[in-house]
Amino acid sequence: MTGARRPRAKIILAKPGLDGHDRGIKVVGMALRDAGAEVVYLGLHQTAEQIVHAALAEDADVIGLSVLSGVHLDVSQELIKACHAAQLDDIAIVVGGTIPPADVTRLRQLGVRDVMPVGTAIDDVVDRILTLAAEETRP
């Protein structure tokens, strides 16, 4: 990680859909917290509307999804539509989990700002999310 001091980032983390394995997102959440971010973990089985509601209520800089069930394209598209409906188009969305390399480009085309497949180093995940948060921080 870089040593640069950043403003305190606010990150929403969630597990959308029926995916029930959340060890990885909890590790990411703790690493982000240890790096100085404020992290709100919404837990399992979150809908796009629930995630957007939390992002608005918390004035979040980044929404991070963890998807291991193979529905990353569908849940990302639902979340992006929900963000648009809530006029929350400026928030950075990142997706991590079991993401085939062929789907990375498609996720970015949908509007996902960054994709972090299983195996991405935790320091890299934290750095990339905090960099996005610094870009998204609103006055």
Describe the protein's architecture and organization.
This protein has five helices and five strands. With 139 residues, the chain is α/β, with parallel strands linked by helices. It has one domain: Rossmann fold. It has a five-stranded parallel β-sheet, sandwiched between helices. Strand 3, helix 3 and strand 4 form a beta-alpha-beta unit. Helix 2 packs across helix 3. The chain is globular, with a radius of gyration of 13 Å.
Descriptive terms for the model:
single chain; 139 residues; alpha/beta; Rossmann fold; 5-stranded parallel beta sheet; 5 helices
How does the SSE layout of this entry go?
Layout: E1 10-14, H1 23-34, E2 38-41, H2 48-58, E3 62-67, H3 72-85, E4 92-97, H4 101-110, E5 114-117, H5 122-136
Helix pairs in contact: 1-5, 2-3, 3-4
Distance between the termini: 25 Å
Task: Give the strand content.
Answer: 15-25%
- Spatially, the strands of the biggest sheet line up as 2-1-3-4-5
The CATH superfamily is Cobalamin-binding domain
Shape: globular
Cα Rg: 13 Å
Number of strands: 5
Low-confidence runs of at least 5 consecutive residues: none
* Helicity, as a percent range: 40-55%
SSE order: EHEHEHEHEH
The CATH topology turns out to be Rossmann fold
Largest sheet: 5 strands, parallel
* Overall average pLDDT: 92
Continuous helix count: 5
Task: Count structural domains.
Answer: 1
> Which CATH class?
Alpha Beta
Which CATH architecture?
A: 3-Layer(aba) Sandwich
